[in-house]
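Researcher: I'm comparing several assemblies side by side, and this is the next one on my list. It has 672 residues spread over two chains. Same procedure as the others: predict the full complex and return the structure.
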Amino acid sequence: MKTTNTAIASALAFGGMALLGTAALAAGADMGGATKQPTNWHAIIMFVIFVGATLGITYWAAGRTKTAADFYAAGGGITGFQNGLAIAGDYMSAASFLGISALVYGSGYDGLIFSVGWLVGWPIILFLIAERLRNLGKYTFADVCGYRLARMPIRTFAATGSLIVVIFYLIGQMVGAGQLIKLLFGMDYVYAVMIVGALMMVYVTFGGMVATTWVQIIKACLLLGGATFIAFGVMSHFGFSFEKMFVKAIEVHPKKTAIMAPGALVTNPVDAISLGMALMFGTAGLPHILMRFFTVPDAREARKSVFYATGFIGYFYILTFIIGFGAITMVATNPEYLVKGVGALDLKGGNNMAAVWLAHAIGGNLFLGFISAVAFATILAVVSGLTLAGASAISHDLYASVIMHGHATEGKEVTVSKISSIGLGVIAVLLGLIFEKQNVAFIVALTFSVAASANFPVLVLSMFWGGLTTRGAVLGGVIGLLMSVIMVVLSKAVWVQSFGFKEALFPFAYPALFSVPAAFFFSWLFSVLDNSPSAQAERAAFEAQAIRSETGLGAEGAASH
Amino acid sequence: MSSSNQPTAAHLASVDHIRNNPKFAELVRKRNAFAWTLSAAMLIIYFGFILIIAFNKAWLGTLLSEGGVTTIGFPIGVGVILSAIALTGVYVYRANGEFDDMNRQIIEESR
């Protein structure tokens, strides 16, 4: 089905992901084909209000950002509830909002598979990672990996893993942002990408983590509020009966009852499991997400923040599902929104517009403008979090620990971080421009796979296994990193579709099923084989680490003023 | 750079005390057992869902009631989402209550 493939590919282009990479990619219709819409003044006015408010916050935050702890971790003064909202704001991308509702619109039940996969990493983060991360680390997850292992190699490795994840994630977000803004605001792609880049540089450079946190909180509230309003509009239209909504959706949708069960999204079990692993463990290896746990004062608040975040994100995914079905019943029945008239699903501006047109059907032009502005705000919040995480990897891990051997002054470290934010902003804009016409669908698979295969295994082992040595961690992590990148490059998405070879050398779409166990196995193997004196010392240091990691004794306090 | 690199004498004494405190071993054992059990529950629920999709997706299309249209897949999918929220709630409730109380005792005894 053309519509399905377009919807899946669009979801992917936004940073969404399909269980069936191959079919999705075969369509090749990412947002590169988005048509420019007439200038949308309601949206622009509301967006200007949002930008004005966030710049005001950045100005306020800049006055409060004096130390490194302020810049990286908002002084550790964020509450669990606030951090939960900020995490949700950091994590719920335009992909999940427009991409998943478009996928539900195009193929029904399949969209739910996405939502579920994107949520289940959170409990794992809570049970195994959050409190230990908070107790052991200061500003980056590399602090935790490097707690008892040799500083230079482990920081270099962790910073590299972070930067690869951040840069790939940024490419996906920037390309999606440019296309989305072109679509929603009627603005040129080039200007759209440059505005996103400039704003994120301003937030991060001047306001650091304080401004980034509040941008994410505001965005989370706007997105949750907007999505709730749309879903409420849909449900009240059907007298709050799912059954009635489904009956109407089946009647309207060309696939009829097929939308009520999983369809074309999953073809082979290996990819299904592999993607499941990438989603679940990759979430727990995303540097911008892990960094958020250093903004709360202690392990107790860190735990609470995951509970709130899981609640908000889960609630939001249920809403996107109602929105997708709502679009089938209220948008696909109105010729005003359709290219080919009632009967085909093709929407004006592409199927990613499903949620946006539904907003129009429910709340008119004004609400359409609001939702467009929210979508833009969503992208800004996500890229700001990414930029801050990337900048911290450069300044805190590479500059302060590796280059300066831990002797950098706090002021210099923050300066390096600010310069890095600007550098990353420029790189993100350039990559956004380079990749404009490319199919960036594979990038999300790559991002989550690298996070799951390199960052996650090393982080978990360093927390739980006393036998881990520097050699084991670095070699195991590098093997996971290389395997995941190489397998994605050799898969159909890149090898065939980008490079034009005939056959894919790696037969599956996602590498995680192979690369994650490999990273664990080789970390174990090279640790066990490591009998150097430094390895002995590292093993002996585990007990002290475990005491701090379990009790929080000696953990970095709320603020280092 | 940070307190982790230059622990004070008092801090070292506390660490030593905690190491020999049987309550510490008990806390770690209990909390880890709870965390791994809940992790296993989440893994089973999620990969169970994925495996049904991979091997028997038609079953998810079973109708909930004769003459209705809602399939069993919907409550199951939404159930996975709700179970994730519920499991985090259960963990936070016990960790921030019972486990944190134990933890506070251990730290106080070490001073």
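Model: For your comparison table: Chain A touches chain B through 57 residues (CB under 8 Å).
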